[in-house]
């Protein structure tokens, strides 16, 4: 190291100078970190109050027998509500239906979303038009679209149903719900995937095609591994949302014929039945389930938030 | 300002509100607020605000089945002494029963409703008295290639619960005991379910029976597919507009019974007015309610909106008798009509009935009755889950 003062320096002095420098640097960093905490604190406190308090209150309610129709009979019952809910066939039927809808619709959305993303990415003519028109389903209000689907599939009314009445039977209804969900959310998946596609370097693909790789092989061996973080993030968001599906089912079948999802059953018990204890129990169980889904995605599949430094380390 | 929730959007009701506002002479103004048209939607919105002790609702138009629930939760005021006498004056007894819970009067009856057996005069010269007779006649008509269907509401909703309750009551049974602490499902229920299944699988009903609500049953009669129709009194005035030639051919009689000579026992519909506990003007609200459902206004509503009155005197008015030629049949049924299960957890029980017993063609009478009993008991004990 050159010295500008020109005075000769001994080894011991160098060590001490370095130590002082390091201490000053870490002090500076500590001060900076503390400042960061103080600046962020108000927002964190507000967020805790708005999100943490309702969650804690819901957990507390789920441990009581509370019903708004009998306001004088509240008692602490511990885990009894959980036993009631978890041993009820209504809950498990709803859970099973929700799982089916979640898995099938997430898978279909991934496939169609990927196809749409590739199309949007590679379009040469009318790029703006293609991208905008592909987003139209996502821009339509969900309830309005659901009503359109319902009338289209009603017996003797819509042009899709003809003489049959698919919305009065369980499994045809579930497929129609999945159809409405997939139609609505494919643009959202396509958007997220297209962002990932844009990061794939062209030279790799060109080099591979020069080596004789077909389009299919190029897609599977180059594109997909490179956009894996994008795929996992898109899938994580979509799965978490699909698990809490409510509006499509509410409009299409109203939950009849056993097509209720867990959110619908919770709504029926909480808002219609005014049974705060049971309803909160279901809400807490839904919360735990979505937490498990997020955990599976992050730990097992290695999804990470966009912009994270480690980019999805296992 | 008195806020009215429930029934405010009935045909020509705004004229009645205006008339009562004039009669009030400035002491109060009644404001009619809009609610969803289906009873469940109305209940949902009312119940949320009542549970939150909202003082913005004064006068509530309650469906007859909500009295026990609202009273038990302390959301509506009791009527005693002078008010009770005024509210029950000149009123038929069964509607008063629907406004009572634990021997206290909580509501002012406004209008009522009972189902009738409508039939085509040209196809059915002699109206059937029992279900068996009706099914025999329908079978004969079917064999002859004429319109034969028996129409009844059997979709998975409240209208189906009404029919189920009709049948159970006619077999002499009940679903819950008097103070709603025990489920009393017994043989009568099994018999009722057997009859229901027989009806649904006999080929004498519409193909989409499990999807049929009142509009579908009406449409079957209008299109000339039905020879018999179990529906509310509105059918006559609506049919006069929709298909006058069928309206000419319509006649009505009392709801079918099980054995000849039985008294027909049908389920009551209708609406009672109640005063919210959280209302700031209970006295004025009571006055407003008494005005809105006074016998003159009940006659007007009956003629305009098709809501049968609860006042005995209105049944004797010539205007009413002309518009409702079936008034004798209705009076006879109203004298013996029964309410739906009177319990604070009626919402749960109604959902349980319509879910467990739907569709009627898949009924297993013994098992369904047993499961219903267990589910109803759980609901009464506060351990039930709504599907």
Q: Termini of chain B, distance in Å?
A: 39 Å
Task: Estimate percent helicity of chain B.
Answer: 40-55%
Number of strands of chain B: 11
The value of Rg of chain A in angstroms is 27 Å
Biggest sheet features of chain B:
5 strands, mixed
The outline of chain B comes out as globular
Determine the structural class of chain B based on helices, strands and strand pairing: alpha/beta
Strand order of the largest sheet of chain B: 2-1-3-11-6
Q: Spans of chain B with pLDDT under 50 lasting ≥5 residues?
A: none
Number of helical stretches of at least 4 residues of chain A: 13
Strand percentage of chain B: 5-15%
The multimeric state of the shown protein is: heterodimer
- How many beta strands in the DSSP annotation of chain A? 2
What does this structure look like?
The complex is a heterodimer of chains A (about 325) and B (about 375). Chain A has about 325 residues and is mainly α. Chain A has helices spanning about 10-60, 80-85, 90-120, 125-135, 135-140, 140-150, 170-195, 200-210, 215-225, 230-245, 245-250, 260-270, 275-300, and strands spanning about 65, 75. A two-stranded antiparallel ribbon of chain A has the order 1-2. In chain A, helix 1 packs antiparallel against helix 13. Chain A is flat. Residues about 310-314 of chain A have low confidence and may be disordered. Chain B is α/β, with parallel strands linked by helices and about 375 residues long. Chain B has 18 helices and 11 strands. In chain B, the strands form 3 sheets. In chain B, strands 2-1-3-11-6 form a 5-stranded mixed β-sheet. In chain B, strands 8-9-7-10 form a 4-stranded mixed β-sheet, with helices on both faces. A two-stranded antiparallel ribbon of chain B has the order 4-5. In chain B, helix 1 links the parallel strand 1 (about 1-5) and strand 2 (about 30-35). In chain B, helix 7 packs across helix 8 (about 185-200) and helix 17 (about 345-355) packs antiparallel against helix 18. The model of chain B has no long low-confidence stretch (mean pLDDT about 85). At the A-B interface, helix 12 of A face helix 2 of B.
